[in-house]
Amino acid sequence: MRTYDDPCGIARALDHVGERWALLIVRELLLGPKRFTDLRAGLPGASQNVLSQRLRELEESGIVRRRKLPPPAASQVYELTDRGYELEPVVLALARWGSRAPLRSAKPLSVDALMYALKSTFDPEAAGDFAGRVELRLGEQSFLAAVSGGRLTLRRAEPGATPADAVLRTPADAVLRTDADTLRALVFTGARLDSGMVEGDRQMAGRFVKLFPRPAI
């Protein structure tokens, strides 16, 4: 493993997560485990070899581990360790800092990147006394978002899994069915929310998509 050979804590951290794609792999796993093919889909700019190498390095650093799902899935997934999840505040801070830079890429956001765009732009003041749960169904992927007490909790909805956060264990008040590009337009450009996209409490869904103001550049 390459090293900065510097005793500073920042340098020692970057020895483990400073290589290209490493923190983006962490971003893709913060909302729940993923198969290798799902990681490749979320990081299309990373070659298979580079992605495999970064995952090995992150495993060696105790940030990522592999786990085999029980039948009938019986597939192998990558997930963050407790040490890996400790990087979430770092990722969120970088997202907030980077979102104020000019946007130069025309490529779409990965679904997980979009979820972290929501987390990094959530405005507690705009939420006020809003409280509710919204399920975001984006194609084959589904996420549970709960707002309560000016706090947003967001987690991938895994079949058969019980969310660790109690606020996500109750059924959603509204289900928003769309795709990543449309959701991005709804929350960041004020696109109109079509009532056909919503199951359940339409008023709650309409208010939810307005809780994410674009940061000033």
Summarize the structure in words.
This protein has 217 residues and is α+β, with helices and mostly antiparallel strands. It is built from ten helices and seven strands. The protein has helices at 9-17, 22-29, 36-42, 48-60, 82-85, 88-98, 111-121, 124-127, 180-188, 202-208, and strands at 64-68, 76-80, 132-138, 141-148, 151-156, 174-178, 198-200. Strands 5-4-3-6-7 form a five-stranded mixed β-sheet. A hairpin with a 7-residue loop joins β1 and β2 (76-80). α6 crosses α7 (111-121). It is globular. The model is unreliable at 160-164 (pLDDT under 50).
Summarize the helices and strands and which ones pair or pack:
Elements: H1 9-17, H2 22-29, H3 36-42, H4 48-60, E1 64-68, E2 76-80, H5 82-85, H6 88-98, H7 111-121, H8 124-127, E3 132-138, E4 141-148, E5 151-156, E6 174-178, H9 180-188, E7 198-200, H10 202-208
Parallel strand pairs: 3-6
Antiparallel strand pairs: 1-2, 3-4, 4-5, 6-7
